Amino acid sequence: MLQYRYWAKAKPGGEGAQCHLLPYHSLDVAAVGWLLLAPERPLTQLLAARLDLPPETLRRLFVFLLGLHDIGKFSRAFQGLASPEGVSLVPALERYAYTARHDQLGAVLWQAHWLEWLRDDTLQWPGDIPPRRERHQLSETLRVLLAPMFGHHGQPVEAGNSEVRAFFGHDGVADDIEAARQFVNDWAAFMPPSWPVEKLVSEAWCDTLRALSWTIAGWATLSDWLGSNRDHFAYCQDEMPLGDYWPMALERAQQALQESGFAQTPEPVAYAGLSSWFDGKSITPTPLQREAETLPIGDGPQLFILEDVTGAGKTEAACILAQRLLAAGHGEGLYFALPTMATSNAMYERLGNLHQRFYAEVSRPSFVLAHGARELNDTFVKAVAAEQPGDQDYAADDMTATTRCNRWLADSRKKSLLADVGVGTIDQALMGLLPFRHQTLRLYGLARKVLIVDEVHAYDHYMQTLLSQLLAHHARQGGSAILLTATLPRGMREELAMAWSQGLGQGPASLQADKFPLLTQVGPEGQREVPLATRPEVTREVGIDWLTTEEQALEMVMAAVDSGECVAWVRNTVDDAIRAYEQLCQRHPDPERCLLFHSRFAMADRQRIESSVIERLGKPSTAGQRQGQVLISTQVFQESLDCDVDHMVSDLAPIDLLIQRAGRLQRHERGVRRTPEVSILAPEWCETPDAQWLKRVLPGTQAVYRDTSLLWLTQRVLRELGAIRMPDEARALIESVYGKVAGLVPDDLQEARWEQRGMQGVAVSMANFNALDLAQGYLRHPEFDQWQEEQEIGTRLVDEPTVNVVLLKYTPGDELSLWAEDERHADMLSQVKLRQSQAQKLAELPCDFQSQWETLQERYKALRFTQPWLVAADSNCTYDAQWGVRFSREGENPR
């Protein structure tokens, strides 16, 4: 038959079949999709419920349409791209140029012939064609249905004004359009779709379909990825009926799903108490954890916001809720989203194998770390290749199915969210909102999961806006989410709850409670706000001492050293940290006990310093190790490391950051210590400060925190309260800075405040502009086409672009090499991230080394996106393992 004279996959020469015929590839992909949409799968049931279709009806309809995903390859323009030998195929026609991709050509062919194919029963349409007044809606609904199938290469496609005869030709032997019609007819006869006619002409049903089309597109893309793998789907160029090939395709699809981890969804088990996680050890739940154990899990998508102090067990409470949600059928897996790579690493290590307790022992869920530098996490690298419990009877050179699955999922960050359990940065989830190719895979992965977002307070207005949109979409998809925070302003809590309610199609959530700690629950049945008690052992009072000069801060640090204590000074800029470190090294009786930690170290040195900080100040550190230790650090200290100090000095910063820094003060039990106190370096208190109030004492801080009113309000509330008392005064501390306090701000600070409010408004507008309108569906809109390959859109909005700089050095033979040349992942370990203005200060690579640099780029592909810096050839800027990057003229450099 004519349809068997078209190829879908081809290889250049070699033994065996030279091509894979188009009908067979179409069925390969459809077979994968068929198994992924098994009626018993939770995602299938969710889609069926949202679209008001029986699961089997939905499955047959979607799989039939998925089988059409590559009908654009029936184009003679595409067929001319290869000429496989040994098989009778349609000849190439030189007059047809391949100027449009085959995915778009599928949309072109469909647009030109769908109505004709309906009328002649090619598509197995039941009964008469709808009357003209309903036909427009039918056309639009079918467009929304087919868009995920044709857009299987990561972006939606549109037919536009392309003429079908410009790409689909005919000669005396074959007609491309007739070949496509024959395939569609045979496929429909074998896989007859149950067309839900009444729904296809319903505008409301089409709107629901639009919202779900992103997840459907992810399913189609994943099906195409797996169905195109030659390891499982061998080429076949011998003609046979579709009914004979389909069992072969199903068998191969089952093998592909088995090895990639999608054969069965993990089987959740009911939550049976904290002791069940820790081998029967008796554990008393915290008040937050007890509420998580007992609160009612409602029907439909659920949002939980957990606000409590550090040490209240928020992570474990989130895990309790997650296991209960899984057991109640609210998801198949989990994704933990954190603000930074460092916090993601810490959470990955902390979870360990706990996630396996959420599922039956036979499930062995995949567990993936998802961020840009995860290859540097040894625990993750070992886990990817490790044999899993229960994997037996494999030869030494044969990977188990679980190992294959983990490696496949870890191969690309695009796949990370497809793992059953993932830990990574919030960026990996937010990328699903932005017009990145294959973002639908991220949304498809999230649609199957309970989304857990930690440290929600850490996101700026740009990221908050994207997070709100992600939550609204997750609610529309039927997902559930858990948000964790210690210092969340009430206004932000209301915005997040409102976004969830909007996703559910409800009116805005009406939140009233001002208590802290607090658990907020929002679902289809309304909202609950539950004030919580606090364990006495996590109730803290940290005193405040005020310093007005750097000299006083230096003296305070040395006084602590003289008392045998360990102390940290958290500075707001790298340059201030370097200057303080230099002075303390001169004063300290043992300079080896001084340590500098900031963001301008190469990754190799940063990892070494992190290890040293943990060794000296971590939970297992001894009194002898801690005595006289001084850590001079920027914000990187407060973000992830599980360390504590006896005394802390801090530059003035917004209240939430000071609370976070205070959390590193005497956080572990170590016997008798002084009353915890933070010494804050700040300007002299003034009720009516001028605009230069902060700059005169902390010029670098004003460059970082431009809204100086936040720091003045922070100083004001801390002077009034005299201490940081958690949790009793947590709400008062936060709302006194971030609440409705505009009337308290002095006149000379109003300009900076309004300037920052304007920038925040710009950030919100940029987020709304950059984000895809997910409610409009997986469609391309020619009047506002966001899908531009050259666009540089990020999940974070920064004042200045950053540059990845790779440090280079000479070898003894004057050869160019990486800074960490002898290390595994030397290319990543030799990099440091700098602001663009800083990177411009570095000397350019001498011309004599250009060819060697190109050789390094060939060896390490990631270096193509970096700026080379030969440190020894720079007479103005320097780098060493103790100080990091230092510029000839210091100033305006970031945290």
Automatic annotation (TrEMBL):
GO terms for molecular function: ATP binding; hydrolase activity; metal ion binding; nuclease activity; RNA binding; RNA helicase activity. SMART domains: DEXDc (SM00487), HELICc (SM00490). Keywords: Antiviral defense, ATP-binding, Helicase, Hydrolase, Metal-binding, Nuclease, Nucleotide-binding. Residues 15-226 form the HD Cas3-type domain. Residues 295-496 form the Helicase ATP-binding domain. The keyword Hydrolase applies. It comes from the Bacteria. This is CRISPR-associated helicase, Cas3 family.
